[in-house]
Specification:
The complex is a heterodimer.
Chain A (H helix, E strand, L loop, with lengths): L9 H25 L5 H15 L3 E4 L2 E3 L4 H8 L2 H19 L7 H24 L4 H26 L5 H34 L1 H7 L1 H13 L1
Antiparallel strand pairs in A: 1-2
Chain B lengths: L2 H24 L6 H9 L2 H9 L17 H27 L4
Helix pairs in contact in B: 1-4
The chains are: A mainly alpha, B mainly alpha.
């Protein structure tokens, strides 16, 4: 879903950068507040893994392929969508500048779609599903919906840019990413989260919403 | 640093490098969702016009390959990117966590 430079006119691309910037700054703030010596290796491992796995396009039929985005995975592990925004910003920077994967002018739009939309939708969908469902299903659902919604946002941007017609664009992007989201995003996120929940349950528990609420309450009482 | 978190890091690096080696052979050469949608919904003349436009900057390893190096160049490109992402992550960690 990496938008190349040519797909969005420069003036619109600048607007997406302006919208993306506060989110990038907030993700930096999250890092300043939450990243400690203990968490840096976890963040680095996830960022490296996501960069590599984004190079692995999985065939989905119809002559099309797709790959994982990973913002939801990072957000679930750290218990915050800002972590997903931060990691995707890093990954997209390296991809754009070193590999011409996604444009430089359109990087703002790409950070918005893959970092912000898929991270926030993915994380909060996971959080809601997690109240009544097992962790693997909640992670699958969140990651899948996050990717699907971000492809819809991308299709609308393509329409505003005059690059895609609205309805055919929505249909094509929606259909492809429904499937990419199922395999590339949902399944891999679910497997990764299940593996982490088994090997490092402390990581996920420490960052769960309940644990955070308790911490806030305890701080309030003290 | 906690040993457990370092183990997590090593596992992450191992998976990333394994994927770097496999991706050039296993990754699908088919267009991704956005490109495929573009092929389907944009008429041909406009599409070729868009494709001819140069990207805003020229990248050293366009499309995860190194010129003249074939598959081994692709493996190297993805591995270099993986290491760059690792280095930037640790750099950020250092900047934001001054205690370290």
């Amino acid at each position: 879903m990496h938008i190349p430079d040519s797909f969005i006119p420069l003036d619109q691309a600048v607007i997406y950068w302006v919208i993306a910037l506060p989110f990038i700054i907030m993700s930096m703030r999250w890092a300043r507040k939450e990243l400690d010596e203990m968490k840096v290796p976890i963040l680095a491992a996830l960022a490296a893994g996501i960069f590599a796995i984004q190079a692995m396009n999985i065939p989905i039929g119809m002559g099309t392929s797709g790959h994982m985005v990973g913002a939801a995975l990072v957000a679930i592990v750290f218990g915050s969508p800002w972590a997903g925004v931060l990691v995707l910003t890093l990954v997209l920077l390296v991809q754009g500048f070193a590999f011409a994967d996604g444009g430089i002018t359109t990087m703002g739009a790409n950070i918005l779609n893959m970092g912000v939309v898929s991270g926030f939708v993915g994380y909060y969908t996971y959080a809601v599903l997690r109240r009544s469902l097992s962790i693997n299903i909640a992670a699958f659902g969140g990651a899948w919906l996050g990717l699907f919604i971000s492809s819809i946002v991308c299709a609308v941007q393509m329409w505003i840019a005059g690059t895609f017609p609205l309805v055919p664009g929505l249909m094509a992007m929606g259909t492809f990413h429904l499937i990419i989201g199922f395999i590339g995003e949902g399944l891999i996120t679910s497997i990764a989260i299940t593996a982490i929940a088994k090997s490092r349950p402390d990581l996920l528990e420490e960052n769960s919403l309940e644990a955070r609420k308790e911490r806030v309450e305890m701080e309030a009482m003290a | 640093m906690s040993g457990k978190n370092m183990k997590f890091l090593y596992a992450g690096i191992a998976i990333a490098l394994l994927v770097s080696v496999l991706a050039p052979f296993l990754a699908s050469p088919n267009p991704d969702g956005l490109e495929s949608a573009a092929l389907g919904v944009i008429d041909e003349s406009k599409l070729s016009e868009l494709e001819e436009m140069e990207p805003a900057i020229s990248s050293p390893m366009t499309d995860y390959s190194i010129e003249g190096m074939g598959k081994s160049g692709e493996i190297m490109a993805i591995a270099i990117g993986t290491i760059a992402v690792l280095a930037i992550s640790f750099g950020l960690g250092k900047v934001f966590n001054k205690k370290a």
